[in-house]
Amino acid sequence: MSSQRQKRKGMFEKILIANRGEIACRVIRTARRMGIKTVAVYSEADADALHVREADEAVLIGPAPSAESYLNIPRILQAIKDTGAEAVHPGYGFLSENAAFAAALDAAGIVFIGPTREAVAAMGDKIESKKLAVKTGVSTVPGHNDVIADPDQAVQIARKIGYPVMIKAAAGGGGKGMRIARSDEEARDGFRLARNEARASFADDRVFIEKFIEEPRHIEIQVLGDTHGNVIYLGERECSIQRRHQKVIEEAPSPFLDEKTRRAMGEQAVALAKAVAYRSAGTVEFIVDRERNFYFLEMNTRLQVEHPVTELVTGLDLVELMIRVAAGERLPIAQTDVKLRGWAIEARVYAEDPARKFLPSIGRLVRYIPPAADGRAVRVDTGVYEGGEISVYYDPMIAKLIAGGKDRQEAIANMRMALDAFYIRGLNHNIPFLSAILHHPRFGEGRLSTGFIAEEFGDSYAAAAHLPADPRLFVAVAAALYRRQAERECHISGQLAGHKARPADDCVVVLGERHYPAAIAARDGGYDITIDGERCEVRSGWHLGEPLFRGTVGGAAVIMQVEREGTAYRLFRGGVQVEARVLSPTAAGFLSLMPRKVAPDLSRFLMSPMPGLLVSLAVRIGQEVKAGEELAVVEAMKMENILRAERDGVVAKLHAKPGDSLAVDQAILEFA
C-alpha cells in the first residue's frame, strides 16, 4: 500500500487544480460548494482563461506549450508550496495518470486526489493494466502486450495477430496516439504517428498493438473506491459514438446492456480495482460485441470527461466523493444503494470544422450563448466565455453539453433542443454535426457501434449541404422574420409623407433552386403563413437582432438560430443550415435570370486544411508525385495530419517550409 498521506483530521482547506479548461472549472464549483479554497495554475496562453478567473488564487507556471507548463512537475510543486495547498486534483489528461507526479506529491507530503501511485503505475499504463487484467481473470482482447520497438516489428506483430489491429499509446488517453491499421503500410504509418502523438501529448512514446474488433460497442464502467477497502461500481456509460477514437457522444445507461451483462461487467471492474487496492474514481473500459461478449480495453485512473452522465443518473457528485475519499472518509454508499434513475446524454462541443474533415479551428468566441441550465434537463460544463479564445496549444473542447430525462427519448429530445439553442460565432464548431447525430434514426433506435460516424457520415459533415426534412418549417420561419422586419421598416418610413406604411402580404422564399411563394397574414402573437395552399401558424415573441428564434410552428415548439445577411436569412436547426432569401414576387422573378458565379480553380495548390505547424515536407521542386503519396505533415492540437496528393503531378513551387505556422487555406506547395 502506498505511503502517500491522506487527510485524517477534517476536510482540506485549500486544493490546487493541476489542469485547465472546463474540468478545472468543474472542480472549482464543487470545492466552492464544500467550502474549500482553490488554486488554479495557468500557462501564458491561459492568462485570461475562465478557470483562472473562478479560482480563489492563480499561479503562472510557464509558457504556452504544455510540456513547459501543465506537464512541468517542478513548477506545479512550486505553486503548491507557494500557495500552501494541501491537496491536488489533477482533472483528466496532462498529469492525471502520471505515476511520477503522484510520487512527487507523496514525497512532498501533498495529498493526490486520485488513486495511489502504485495503482496509477499499474493501471494507467495500458500494457501493464492488460497483463494485470489477464492475471485477475478479466476478459481481454487478443494482442501483443509489450512495447513495440520500430515499424518493422509493428508490421511483424500485426501480421501475427491478424489485420485489422489497433496501435495504441501505452500512456494514452482521450483518443490521442491511436491508429487502426488494415495493412502493412498502415501499420508502419500508424506506428510512427501514434508514437509521435504519444510523445507530444504524454511525454511517453511507447506503443503496443491489439486486435481491432469489428462492429464493437465501447462501454465503460465507473468505479469508486475508498481507503478502507470499499469498491463499488456506478453503472455503465455507452461511449460508442466516436470519431478517430475520440468520444463524441456518451450516455448512461447503455441502450444495449441487460441487467445480467451490466452486473457481470461491474463485478469484473470491481475485481480489477480491488487487485490494486484502488481508491478514488476510476473507469474500466470494455469493448462489447453484438452478442454482449465484453473484453477489457484499459483502466483510466482518473475522472473521465463523460462523468456528468453518471452523476445525472445516480444523483452523486463524483468530484466531491473523490475529495472526501482523499481526505480519508469512507464511501457514504454501498453497492446496494446505487440506483440508476432516468437517462442522460453528453455531447462534446469542439472548435473544429466538420466540413473540412473535422480539422481543428482556432480563434475568438465572438458570440458565445450556451443554452440555459435547467436542473436535470440541461447542464453545461465549460471553461470558456464570450470574448475568450480557443488556442492552437490545447484540446479544442469548447464545452460539454449534458441533457437528461425520465427515459432515453426524453433525454434525446432535450439534447436536440439544447443544441439548437447553443449559439457560437467567431470560429467553426461541431454543433450542427452533433445535432445531425441526435436526429439520425439509427441513433434514436440505439443501434450503435464505434463505426457509427464513419458508416453514417463519412469523414466530414457540412450542414449547408443537407436538405431539411421539412423545408416548409424553414420557409415559414423565414417568411415570419421577413414580415417582422418589413413591419418595422414600414413603421419608420410611414412617418414620412408619401412612403408606404403597410408591408406586403406576399413574398417568395428561395431555398437553393426552389422558390416557395408565401402569403402572410398577421395574427395575435405571430402570423399565419400559407405555403402551397397549406396554412402554417407561426407564433413567437422574436425581436429584430435576436440570434435565436423561439416559438411554435404548427403548434410544435421550435428553436432556430438566425442570422440576417441582406435579403437572406441563415437558419440553423436540427443539424441543417439553410440560406433562405426572401424576396418580393417581382424580385424573385429577376433572380432566376441572374448568371451564377464560378469558383476559381485551386486544384493545383496543396492548401493547409487547418491552422497549425508545418512539421515536414516530403517533396521537393521538380519531383513527380503519385496520387496518395505523402506531401506534408501539419500538426494542430497535438495531432499530426498527413496531407497526401489527390492526383498525379509535378511539384512546381514550395510556398512554405518546415517550422512555418500556417493559416487555414494557406498554400503549402503548387503543382505544375
Note down, in words, how this protein is organized.
This protein is of the alpha+beta class and 672 residues long. The protein has six domains: 14-113, Rossmann fold (3-Layer(aba) Sandwich), CATH 3.40.50; 116-141 and 217-341, ATP-grasp fold, B domain (D-amino Acid Aminotransferase, Chain A, domain 1), CATH 3.30.470.20; 143-211, 2-Layer Sandwich (Dna Ligase, domain 1), CATH 3.30.1490; 343-455, 2-Layer Sandwich (D-amino Acid Aminotransferase, Chain A, domain 1); 471-591, Glycoprotein, Type 4 Pilin, CATH 3.30.700.30; 605-671, OB fold (Dihydrolipoamide Acetyltransferase, E2P) (Beta Barrel), CATH 2.40.50.100. The protein is built from 17 helices and 39 strands. Strands 14-13-10-11-12-15-22-20 form an eight-stranded antiparallel sheet. An eight-stranded antiparallel beta barrel has the order 24-25-26-27-28-29-30-31, surrounded by four helices. Helix 4 (99-107) runs antiparallel to helix 5 (117-124). It is globular and about 85 Å long. The model is unreliable at 1-5 (pLDDT under 50).
